[in-house]
Design brief:
about 110 residues, alpha+beta, Ubiquitin-like (UB roll), 2 helices, binds zinc ion
Length: about 110
């Protein structure tokens, strides 16, 4: 692997550390779903900073993961909607405004 231009340079963040090329696996999260991303770049040996190399394949994998999470969430909502025999408009109303109203209802009688 070709060394990056950052390898061996002083860390621009903490100044005392030195950057070394390497790979790391970091866990990112998208809507509560963990995703293991492999990142490449120059990592500081003193602080946690890194100068990452843009990786088109990794970027595409991350976007595909997010699409999959979104599709899964959409199909779950759709199956719940069908089970409850709601129209799409009713389901949208529930999903959009439901959270605001539930606490007041569970706290007891409406205040009027
Ligand atoms: Zn540093």
């Amino acid at each position: 692997m070709k060394k990056s231009k950052w390898n061996g340079h002083a860390c621009p963040i903490c100044v005392v550390g030195v950057l070394h090329d390497g790979n790391k696996t970091v866990t990112q999260e998208y809507k509560g779903h963990p995703y293991q991303a492999k990142v490449r770049g120059a990592f500081c040996d003193k602080c946690d900073e890194a100068i990452l190399v843009y990786d088109a394949i990794e970027e595409a994998a991350w976007l595909a993961f997010r699409d999959q999470v979104d599709r899964q969430a959409a199909s779950e909502l759709e199956s719940i909607r069908k089970r409850l025999k709601l129209t799409q408009a009713q389901a949208a109303k529930l999903a959009g405004g439901g959270k605001m109203h539930f606490p007041a209802m569970s706290a007891g009688r409406p205040s009027r």
